[in-house]
């Protein structure tokens, strides 16, 4: 998940609401010819300390995505960036991808604007069950908290202010008398070029330094920097999770991602 501001979502890293205000680019492994559903939700409403199970906020919802061409999918809710309330702490913003069995014929209310109306009370679990999406095949999330940008955005939304553009006026054309300018004389550089040629001829040729090639095991060093958004971490807890039937198709996640998916889907904690 990459935003136009340059930041990337990396399994629970903290981002600012200003840096995620615009729609990101999302990519995931696909099956040729398959359709997918992409959803982004906030499960920490009103706060992460005391979340309400029925109060998820639908930040983004697109169905019938051919492979991973998000712009070609059917938008049910346009993207709305994060905007945690003041004093509510860090909120998680979870991206989930589902593989559809076939194109969805939905009966949902389409939200064509990024306003808050119609987005609360959303349940990812109920939506997935309604359209037989099964379990998510990919997931990622970031956390964000209130900052000054959220206050400005909310103030603009309440006032309904729209940017105004001052009318442009055309001034009468001014007649000017064409003037002719003589170009400056070209500098004489022949002598300088001869000196440079002599220096280059007299100087010994540079010696080539041997190049060293370093090889590194693909899983050594900084694991997180080498892992993509949905790569397998190989940790002990992940192997245990893989044996459980909760997310049989999930190609990868870390512990925080696993717990976030539990919260979004309303699964019992273990």
Task: Kindly describe this structure.
This protein is an alpha+beta fold. It has a domain at 13-159 and 230-264: PEBP-like (Phosphatidylethanolamine-binding Protein, Alpha-Beta Complex). Helix content is 20%, strand content 15%. The chain is built from 6 helices and 6 strands; from the N terminus they run βββββαβααααα. Strands 1-6-5-2-3-4 form a 6-stranded mixed β-sheet, covered by helices on one side. Strand 3 (57-66) and strand 4 form a beta hairpin. The relative contact order is 0.18. InterPro entries: PEBP, PEBP-like_sf, PEBP_euk. This is Phosphatidylethanolamine-binding protein.
Secondary structure blueprint with pairings:
Layout: E1 13-14, E2 35-42, E3 57-66, E4 74-77, E5 91-99, H1 124-130, E6 138-144, H2 148-159, H3 190-202, H4 223-226, H5 236-243, H6 255-265
Parallel strand pairs: 1-6
Antiparallel strand pairs: 2-3, 2-5, 3-4, 5-6
Q: Describe the biggest sheet?
A: 6 strands, mixed
State the low-pLDDT regions, or none.
162-176, 187-206, 210-245
Please name the fourth-level CATH homologous superfamily of the domain at 13-159 and 230-264: PEBP-like
Separate helix tally:
6
Strand percentage: 5-15%
CATH third-tier fold name of the domain at 13-159 and 230-264: Phosphatidylethanolamine-binding Protein
Strands in their spatial order, largest beta sheet:
1-6-5-2-3-4
Overall CATH class of the domain at 13-159 and 230-264: Alpha Beta
Distance between the termini: 28 Å
Q: What Rg is obtained from the alpha carbons, in whole angstroms?
A: 28 Å
Q: Which series of helices and strands comes N to C?
A: EEEEEHEHHHHH
- Morphology: globular
Q: Compute the average pLDDT.
A: 75
Number of strands: 6
The CATH architecture of the domain at 13-159 and 230-264 can be given as Alpha-Beta Complex
